[in-house]
Amino acid sequence: MKAGRNHGKNKPSAVSQAEEKEKKSETHRAGQTPIGLAVPGKKQPILLHACCAPCATHVIELLSRSYSVTALFYNPNIQPDDEYQRRLQAMRQLCQHTGTRLLVESSPVSVWDRWVQGLEDEPEQGRRCLRCFTGRLEYCVSTADRLGFPLVATTLTVSPRKPAGAINAIGVSVAANARTCYLESDFKKQDGFKRSCELSKSYNLFRQNYCGCLYSLRDRDAL
Ligand code: SF4
Q1: What confidence tens digit (pLDDT) does each residue in 92-119 have?
Q2: Residue ranges per domain, the chain?
Q3: Which of 179, 159, 170 is nearest to 47 (CA)?
């Protein structure tokens, strides 16, 4: 893994913890599109976990209105390697188009294998996927903490095939003891998914035809 995790280190004081908690209660609104915190003349930084370029299109467009967005591509679930490279290249292309900062982090596939061990035969949207979301969000929250981002969000809720409620519950849980706040979302709402398709087409981005892991590829091929 390229970066370590430092949960629990450099804890904020009691006062700042209370402020953080208050901030969290303002921003943790399940199922709503987030709205920027009002800081006149200044956009708050946010670290956006990007699962892929097509999903990130709409979210970057939306969040950039209120936040200073840095995208983080961290997806050790994507296999095989040529598919990973294709999706990463599409992400670079999108960030170049939109002028978005991009961080790329990676872990060996064996790390992802450990997350989902014993759940290989679960169907998509089952328990294997919950572990896959958890591993990626833990890493993103840890990175946001390490780099001093006050907020973190994920593009995972753009997909109509992914449960926003479960993803948000994981995000809130993994950020509970961190200094960063997880921003709840359901980015597919208000035609968000449709907008992501339009933008992907206009940017001529590569769009994958399976979720990412070899099991989802196997299931696609079995159809
Ligand atoms: S189907 Fe998608 S979300 Fe589920 S485990 Fe595979 S890559 Fe992760």
Answers
A1: 999 999 999 999 999 999 999 999 999 9
A2: 18-222
A3: 179
What is the 220 CA–ligand 1 centroid distance (Å)?
Answer: 12
Which atom of ligand 1 lies closest to the CA of 132? 8
Which residue, judged by its Cα, is nearest atom 3 of ligand 1?
129
Ligand 1 centroid – CA 136 distance (Å): 11
**In testing the pocket of ligand 1, which one of 84, 213, 220, 223 has its CB within 8 Å of the most ligand atoms?**
213
Question: Dihedral, CA atoms, 16, 20, 22, 23, nearest 10 degrees?
Answer: 130
The residue whose CA is least distant from atom 2 of ligand 1 is 211
Task: Summarize pLDDT for 156-189 with one digit per residue, the tens.
Answer: 999 999 999 999 999 999 999 999 999 999 999 9
Query: Does the domain at residues 18-222 carry the CATH identifier 3.40.1130.10?
Result: no
Q: pTM of the predicted model, to two decimals?
A: 0.84
